[in-house]
Amino acid sequence: MAATLTGEPGRGGAVAPGDGSHGKGGKRSARQRRFGPSRRDVGDRASRPGFLWAVPGALFFTVFAVVPLGLVAVLSFYSWGGLGSPQWAGTANWTKLLHDPVMLRSLWLSVLLTLLGVVVQTPLSLLLGVWAAGPQRNRAVLSAIYFVPLLLSATAISVLWRALLDPNFGIPSQLTWLFGNGNLFGHQNTAIGVLVWVAAWQYTPFHTLIYQGAARAVPEVLYQAAEIDGAGRVRKFFHITIPQLRNAMVTSVILMVVGGLTTFDTVLILTQGGPGTDTTITAYYMYQQAFKSFDFGTGAAIALLLVVVSTIISLIVVRASGYDKMRSVNEGL
Amino acid sequence: MRYPTTVRALRRANWGAGFGSLVWLFLVGLPVYVVVAASLQTTSDFTRGGPLSWPRHLTFANFSADFSTGFGRYFLNTVLLTAAVVAIVLLLVPPLAYAIVRARGRVAGTVFRMLLVGLAIPAQAVIVPVFYLISKAGLYDNLIGVILPTAAFALPVCTLVLSGVMRDITPDLYEAMTLDGAGSFRTFFTLVVPLSRTGLSTIVVFSALQAWNGFLFPLVLTQSDSSKVITLGLYDFQTAYGVNVPGLLAAVLMSMIPVLLVYLFARKALVQGLMGVGGK
Q1: Under a CB-based contact definition with an 8 Å cutoff, are residues B103 and A53 in contact?
Q2: Among candidates A248, A304, A287, which has minimal Cα distance to A14?
Q3: Looking at the whole model, is its pTM more than 0.80?
Q4: Most buried residue, A240, A268, A297, B265, by CB count within 10 Å?
C-alpha cells in the first residue's frame, strides 16, 4: 500500500473516476490525496480565497444531484402517480419488485449486456489505443476520425443504426446471405447483438483514448531492455504493454460497467425493450415503470437498485483486479 | 499533458495493426457515408437503391421538409439550452475550482469529495426525484427545467478538469499577487482566469456537447413541441417517419453538423480534457 499510484500522475497509472455520465471508483482516497491541499503550499505567504467561493456551485449541485439521490431512496417507499402528493406505501414497491419476473430478468439482461460490452470493447480499444499511441502523422489523423462517434448523441447514433439495420430498407435486407431474413430486431440474440455493436461503435473511441494516453506513458527503457533480450513484437505486447496498462484497463472496465448498466437511450430507440421484454434492461424498465406506467415509487425503487448494483459491481471489479492493493506499475525501474 | 517518455520502440511499421485500424476506419466511416448519401436523395431513389447507394439526383428537399415539421424550433431550443448550460457552467465552475485548489479548511475538501461522488451518479438514478422537484417547482415542460439539471450534471467533470488546470499555476505567482496587495477577487480575475484559458475552453466544449446531446432530461421533463430539443425531435421523427429514411437521416445529419464543426476547431481542448479525465 506504501507506493500507490498517487505519486505518479501522468505515468499511465493514476485512474480518474469518470467522465460524468458514468463513473465510479474505489480509489477516492487516492484521488483526494492528490487533489487535497498539498503540503508544500502550507508555508506560503499568498492570501487564499474563503470557502464562500465554492458555495454557489456546491449549492447548485446539491439541489439538483445530491438531494435527488437522497430523495430517490425516500420516494421508493412512497406511491406517487405524478399528480398530487406522494402517499406513504411502506415496502409495497419493494415487495412488488421482488416478485416481478421482468425485474429480475432485466437485471440479468443488464449484466449480460454489460459483460458482452466489456468483452467486445476491451480488446478492440486496447489494440487501437496501443496502435494510436505511435508517433506517426497518419495515426493522428486516423485517431481524429475514430473519435467522431463519441461526439454524436446516443440518440443520433441509435436513430442512425436503426435506419441502417432496418429490416426492409437497411443493409441486412441487401446482404441476406449474411443476415438471414434481415430482421435483426425480431429475435433476442440478434437484438442483443445490435445493442452490443452500437455501444461498441459509440464507446470504443473513448476507451481507445484511455489506452492511448496510458500507452504513451510506458517507459521506453522497458522495450529497449526486452529488445536486447530478443523479444519480438507479440512478446513485448503481452509482457510489457499489457501489464503496464493494467491501471488504464481497470479504469476503462469500470467505466464500461457503469456505463453499460445505465444504458438507456440506445435501448429506448433501437429495440424499445423488445421483442417482448427480451431486451428490457433495468434502466429501461425503470423508465417504463415511472414514466410510462406512472408508478414513480416503483421507478424510484428500481433506480436505487441500479445505483446499488453498479456500485457493488464496480467494487468487485476493483477488488478482483487487485487495484485496491496494487503497487506502482513502475516498480523495479 | 506531457509524455515523459517517447515510444520509439513502437515506431517500426506494424502492418497487422495498420490493417486492423483501417478496418475500424471503414466501420466508423460507413454509417457517416450512409447518412450523408441518404439525406441527399429522394425517398424513392433510396428505397430502390438501398442504403449504400450514392445519390443520382441530388436534392435538398429532405432538409427543408424537416424544417417544415418543426426542426427549426427544435434547433433553436437546443441552441438556447446549450448556451444557457454553458453560461451556468462558466459562472459557477471557475470560482468553485479556485476554491477547491486554493481555499484552506475543510469546506473545499468536502465539496470536492462530494463532486467526486457526483461523477458516479448516473442521470437515470435521479431522474424520478428530479422530475418530482421540477414539477413541484412549476418548471415542467419549460426549457429552464431542462437547463438546470443538465448544467448540474455537467458540473463535476468540468470542475475536475478545471481544478486540474488551476493546480498547475505555481504558488510563486499567488505570492507575487499577494505582495502586490491583491485580494482573492483580483487574484482570481487577473491571474487565475487568464492562466486557465485552456481549461476554460475545454469545459465550454464539454458542457456544450453534453447539453447539445442530452436526451433523458428533455425526454422526461418536456412534452410540447414548443420546448422540444433536437434529440427528442429525432426520436419523434423516427416513430413518425416510417419509410422516409432520407428525411430522418437528414435530421440526424443536421444534428451532427454543429458538433462536428466545433470538433474541427476545438479538437485539442476536447481530446486533452477527455484524456485528463479518463486516463491520465
Answers
A1: yes
A2: A248
A3: yes
A4: A297
